[in-house]
Amino acid sequence: MGFIKRNLRKIQRDNFNLPSIWEVPEIALEEAVVNALVNRDYFINSSVRVFIFKDWIEIISPGKLPNTTNIENIKQGIQIARNPILLSFVPKLKIPYRGIGSGIRRMIIECKKAGISEPEFIEDRVKEEFKVIFYRPESV
Hints:
There is one protein chain. The chain is of the alpha+beta class. It is about 30% helix and about 20% strand. It contains five helices and six strands. The strands form two sheets. The chain has a four-stranded antiparallel beta sheet, with helices on one face. Strands 1-2 form a two-stranded antiparallel ribbon. A hairpin with a 3-residue loop joins strand 3 and strand 4. Helix 2 packs antiparallel against helix 5. The radius of gyration is 15 Å and the shape is globular.
């Protein structure tokens, strides 16, 4: 999250008495990073990767979606834990954790509240990776 925050812009709201906000909601970014770490396929010898481009941010997690899960299912909150033992430790760790099966929906809701595009979710079964793309607002 430190890398992401160092490379994002802050937006000043209309009311200058209010604090500025990140161009992509922090909660949405945290959810994507936590999901990438907790739900990745640890049998694949690769790392979670974060790329920040001029117009978008990519968070890539090794592994395709588990079992019969698909993108439409996860948007509706259906969750199949790939790493249930790791998942059981998440609430005890000092990382942002807001509940099982709610992260994807939360990312969508937070982006809508911020007035930016809904994140794009891409599963690449050939490369065996899951990617979340946040589009950065143009007029910042």
